[in-house]
Structure formats: C-alpha cells, structure tokens
C-alpha cells in the first residue's frame, strides 16, 4: 500500500491552483490531508480522478480553521475522531481501523501563538501517545501520519541554532518525539534514509525559503515497531507545490 500525507494549508486554495493533479500520477491507496480549513459542503469536486472508495472529514468547529480529511481505496472497519484527545473540537484527528492496524491522520497543534497554546500542544502530545499505547496493548499496529509541528533533530531543519528557542524546535517538544521513539515507534523516513541531509517538508513563504531549501521536516509517518518488517519505502515529494508543506509518504505491506 502507498500512503501519502499532506498539510494543504487550505484545501480550497490548493484546488484553485489545480495542485492535486499529482494524485492521479502517484495513485496512493490512502491520502491523508491536514489543515483543510473547510467543512464537508465546501470541499471542491472533483479534486482528482483517482478512484478512492471512501472519504472521511473532520472539520473544526471554528470556520476556516484546522481540519483533517482522509481518502482511501479500501473501506476502513471503523473511523472516529478521538474526541477525548481533540476536546477543543479543532478537527485534528481521524482514527481509521482496518484489521489489526490503526491509522491516524493528525494535525498536531502549533505552540507558537502563546504559552497557553504550547501547554495545549504538549497535553495533546501526551494524551495522544497514551491513546496509541492503549491500542497497542490490544494488539494493534499503529501508523501515525501528519503535521507534527516539531522538527526532531538538528538535521531536520536548515537553521537549528537560530530556532532553538522557537516552538517547533524547543527541547520539550523534541523530547516528546524522543519518548515516542523510545516507546517503540519508528520515524520511517530516517529508518529508510538514515541521516540524509536537506530533506524538508515545510518552508516559510518568506524570503524565498523554498527556492533556497531553507526548510523544516515537521511532517512524518511513524509506525509501531510491530510493523517494521512491513515497511518497504519512505519518501518526501518536495517538487509538489500548492502549499507551504509538501507531501510525505510510505509504502507498506498490510
């Protein structure tokens, strides 16, 4: 299966740029979108011709904000929005169950706005990991994809020293990813590509950052170690335009 995740930073804006044509070329089995900033009736049609069997939308209560959306060529057994984690109703999670695997499409909070939002982000991180760990005790393999809003290591952003006091690269945020990995989850891109440099998934719109590849790798696919043997590839698609993020993906046998 090919799974792709993309923070679109507004699905209507991306559609207006005709920036979904790549989907028909890549033909993912599952496409997970974050920050759609739209309600179900506002999603443009058609976005692409690739024949997905089903789609799920979790819009934020606040209009034009946040939100997640998933497309799949196979039916999930069940889907929910993990409301007990995303209790602020920001549309941040879609939790898909199929067989013994649970796929999470997540738009993790950004902590840059205020100290309160940083605390919210860290609580969200903690509650989310507790939830996935509970599912693992039930024998579930876990796949987590989406915009995590944190670069893990210095290799994951172009200017680590200049950003070490900025939310998105704070020690407390990076430590959560350390904890995630210590619990037995794998950063699939690093698992496949090791310490390759200059591999980013987000670039500021300012100062020609994308053209100069001054970016951050904040979009991930994590899998629980139980699925390690199933992982075939992990990749970033930096050539795809339309958002300040680019798609990331994995190929995995399920």
UniProtKB/TrEMBL annotation:
The keyword Manganese applies. It holds the Pfam family Exo_endo_phos. Probably binds two magnesium or manganese ions per subunit. Its EC number is 4.2.99.18. This is Exodeoxyribonuclease III. Belongs to the DNA repair enzymes AP/ExoA family. The record marks 219 as: Important for catalytic activity. The keyword Cell division does not apply. Mg(2+) binds at residues 7, 35, 147, 149, 244-245. The record marks 245 as: Interaction with DNA substrate. The active site is at 107, 147 (proton donor/acceptor), 245 (proton acceptor). Keywords: Hydrolase, Lyase, Magnesium, Manganese, Metal-binding. GO terms for molecular function: class I DNA-(apurinic or apyrimidinic site) endonuclease activity; DNA binding; double-stranded DNA 3'-5' DNA exonuclease activity; metal ion binding; phosphoric diester hydrolase activity. GO terms for biological process: base-excision repair. PANTHER family: AP ENDONUCLEASE, DNA-(APURINIC OR APYRIMIDINIC SITE) ENDONUCLEASE. It is an enzyme of class 4 (lyase). Its cofactor is Mg(2+); Mn(2+). The record marks 149 as: Transition state stabilizer. Residues 4-245 form the Endonuclease/exonuclease/phosphatase domain. PROSITE patterns: AP_NUCLEASE_F1_1 (PS00726), AP_NUCLEASE_F1_4 (PS51435).
């Amino acid at each position: 299966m090919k799974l792709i995740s993309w923070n679109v930073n507004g699905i209507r804006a991306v559609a207006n740029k005709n920036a979904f044509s790549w989907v028909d070329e890549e033909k993912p089995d599952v496409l997970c979108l974050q920050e759609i900033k739209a309600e179900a009736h506002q999603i443009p049609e058609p976005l692409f011709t690739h024949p997905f069997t089903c789609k799920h939308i979790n819009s934020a209560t606040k209009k034009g904000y946040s939100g997640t959306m998933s497309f799949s060529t196979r039916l999930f057994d069940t889907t929910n929005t993990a409301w007990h984690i995303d209790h602020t109703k920001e549309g941040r999670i879609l939790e898909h169950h199929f067989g013994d695997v649970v796929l999470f499409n997540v738009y993790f909070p950004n902590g840059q706005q205020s100290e309160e939002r940083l605390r919210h982000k860290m609580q969200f991180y903690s509650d989310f990991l507790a939830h996935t760990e509970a599912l693992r005790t039930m024998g579930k393999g876990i796949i987590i994809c989406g915009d995590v809003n944190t670069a893990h290591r210095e290799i994951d952003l172009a200017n680590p020293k200049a950003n070490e006091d900025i939310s998105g690269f704070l020690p407390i945020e990076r430590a959560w990813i350390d904890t995630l990995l210590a619990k037995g989850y794998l950063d699939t891109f690093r698992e496949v590509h090791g310490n390759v440099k200059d591999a980013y998934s987000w670039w500021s719109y300012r100062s020609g950052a994308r053209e100069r590849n001054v970016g951050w790798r904040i979009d991930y696919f994590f899998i629980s170690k139980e699925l390690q043997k199933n992982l075939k590839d992990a990749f970033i698609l930096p050539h795809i335009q339309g958002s300040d993020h680019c798609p990331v993906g994995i190929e995995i046998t399920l």
